[in-house]
Amino acid sequence: MSTLQQIYDVILQGKRNEVEALVKQALDEGQTATAIIEQALRPAMDEVGERFSRAEFFLPDLILAAEATKRATAFLRPLLADGSAASRQETIVIGTVQGDLHDIGKNLVVATLEGTGYRVVDLGVDVAPEKFVEAVRQHNPAVVGFSALLSTTMVNIPRTIDALREAGLRDGRLLAVGGAPVTQRNADEWQVEIYAADAGHVLEAGWSNVGYGQYVILDHGNGYRTLYAHMSVIIARRGQAVEKGTKIGLIGSTGRSTGPHLHFEVYKNGVLQNPFHYLP
Known about the structure:
Blueprint: H1 3-13, H2 16-28, H3 33-53, H4 59-76, E1 91-96, H5 104-115, E2 119-122, H6 129-139, E3 143-147, H7 151-154, H8 156-166, E4 174-178, H9 184-189, E5 193-195, E6 200-207, E7 214-221, E8 224-231, E9 233-234, E10 241-242, E11 247-250, E12 263-268, E13 271-273
Parallel strand pairs: 1-2, 1-3, 3-4
Antiparallel strand pairs: 5-11, 6-7, 6-10, 7-8, 8-12, 9-11, 12-13
Helix pairs in contact: 1-2, 1-3, 1-4, 2-4, 3-4, 4-5, 6-8
């Protein structure tokens, strides 16, 4: 069994105390940090997500796998030079909003993203709106994530979004909101928009019978198509021409969904691609 396969297996098993030794062994064998991420860590976390969605894995399994992946990524990060696969990923800024000290869910998201090679700027807990503004201005992220566990602190999500808007930093980036009290109504009220990843035209817009709920498919030419699913509101219309950054809908939880979010897919000639390479 190859060392990369062993890394894949220990991630699935959540053996966080074994993963660093295997990563070091793979490096000693001549594997690059990027190869370890792309051929072992990322596929392992993809499989964890699939098993979780099929109820074959549960929250403790997800947490252990994410922690193991985070340890491996922390070990590899100093070896990822500019121009590597990881350094080309879009940046994500995330934090728990002001007044809230809960971070288990946020940390799980951070570990999962970092474990699959993405650059995450974690602002921690009790993050004031001005700190979000400062981080967005400094790092220019493609995505900004807001977490809140309490209904009393959830009100600081729209306040922080307003702070970004007032600073001229809201447009052109995706927003992600989450936490136990966050509902579809909240996402609608906060106008968490969905934007076209690139110019093209609307190929499909409507209701999906395969679990996507309200969805839009854009055709960008040259074999590229993007899918945006679980929308609460569809703004784009079939046949409409769109530019990169055109608002096409609002975040929702329609179809087979456990909460408000955007399901985003990129296809090239019918083959599913890594979507982070195509974020606006």
